[in-house]
Design goal:
Protein name (chains A, B, C, D, E, F, G): Co-chaperonin GroES
Helix content of chain A: under 10%
Keywords (chains A, B, C, D, E, F, G): Chaperone, Cytoplasm
CATH class of chain A: Mainly Beta
Pfam family, one (chains A, B, C, D, E, F, G): Cpn10
Largest sheet of chain A: 6 strands, antiparallel
Organism (chains A, B, C, D, E, F, G): Rummeliibacillus stabekisii
Number of strands of chain A: 9
Subunit structure (chains A, B, C, D, E, F, G): Heptamer of 7 subunits arranged in a ring. Interacts with the chaperonin GroEL.
Radius of gyration of chain A: 15 Å
Distance between the termini of chain A: 26 Å
Structural class of chain A: mainly beta
CATH superfamily of chain A: GroES chaperonin
Oligomer: homoheptamer
């Protein structure tokens, strides 16, 4: 199991199929929107300048939208994950 | 539903028709002013360096003026939204 | 009405006619001095790192001098305003 | 009257005549030293990160040495002033 | 023995053999993933702005994933180590 | 008298004659070492983010080593001085 | 004696002879590893944002590894020293 540190979270990226109004699938270079993911693990919290740990707002199982190009890709036991900081999470999809 | 994190807010952009004194609609490149939007969701607040959460001043339903080029565009259930930080909000229109 | 957020203020710019010693009005590119404005609305205050709100020193009705090129131009109900942060205000004219 | 904000001060610049050992007045481009000024107004103090106002050390009437190229030139009622932050003041001349 | 200071940790890098789906070993330039390591020593903790020491979350013996290109290589008694800051650690492998 | 502000100090630069092993005086461009000076005046102290004044460690009469290229040259009553921040002082020579 | 200020330390650099697996001494440009030094003097401590002095972890006599290219070279009474900040120290060799 991967246990993220501090304010980091681990997600599985959800591939969103991109179709135009006429149902045509757009090639990759035409997609510029944020991406969706499912949270699989969260760190213990954000360490403030004052040395306090503030628990994260995101929890395992949450579906999130995050800024494209943020985070680091990790392969673990044959699966791809992305490790983000919680500040890269734009919104939770409820 | 999209739930923004921290000091982030989600808005629907309001298209402002731009006319000159003679009623001529300006093309896009001639518009350089901030934009207007309607707030549809707000985060729980701004996290200070000291680990304190300060509630946002903006609330759902507010009409706001924000700095052009700020925020991230998100498409959710067929509609376009913009996710901003509250610090990108210049003023509330009352 | 426009209500600025936090440490922002809204001003009407006061056009200062610029004359040389011989009374000749200078063209725009020859003017490099700070500008004057009249405050029409102020935010609730400056949010410190510690999460405290410090009220602004500038109030509605004040005439101020501000750094040129600071702030964002806003058009509202046919009038032009400038939204500044209080830190862009150099001095109050009393 | 001009009332500077926060940690700003307003000074009148004192022109220091620059002579070489042989009494030749140097042209402007050959002068690279800090400048002298007389303080005519001071702000209420420096606002710390914690929201505290710390009174300035400089007071009206002080002769100071300041870093060249700092501050903003202001013309007010026909006279030229310079608005500096107190941190641009290098030393007080006593 | 090497004793890292503050929020630094010392690790032995674990070489991960990189194979494609067909079992072909990839050359170095084709690998762009974070790396794995085993922690051999940890510092006393992270010094906050307030002068407090916060103990590290990583401990000797932990297997970690860290950002490629972070840290400084050190040779000590014939062995290669990498000295990282704990903030370069992405996750602990459990 | 020049009275430096805050964490600033005023020094007289001590010219160190630079000789090679064979006693040859090196020209200026060949010298790249820090410089020595004698402290002639010190400010009231360093202002912390919290608004506290921390007295300086350096005092009048101290011989110091400082980073070359730091500080501002000042001419006062015919003598040359250098105004530094205490953080530019590398060490006191005792 | 040289007395470093604040979080600075003074070290004598230890020249590490660099040999390849075949015992060939590498020329300088081929060495890219951190360097070793012996601490000869330490400052009174690190000044936090809050104005607190935190004593250093390194003490006189310690052998340390430090990041190459950090610090300032000083010649004092015919000997070469390096003045570093404690944060440039990677590890203590025990």
């Amino acid at each position: 199991m991967l246990k993220p540190l501090g304010d980091r979270i681990i997600i599985e990226v959800v591939e969103v199929e991109e179709k135009t109004a006429f149902g045509i699938v757009l090639p990759d270079s035409a997609k510029e929107k944020p991406q969706e993911g499912k949270v699989v693990a969260v760190g213990t919290g954000f360490l403030t300048d004052g040395g306090q740990v503030v628990p994260l707002n995101v929890k395992s199982g949450d579906n999130i939208i995050f800024s494209k190009y943020s985070g680091t890709e990790v392969k673990y036991e044959g699966k791809d994950y992305l490790i983000l900081r919680e500040s890269d999470v734009l919104a939770i999809v409820e």
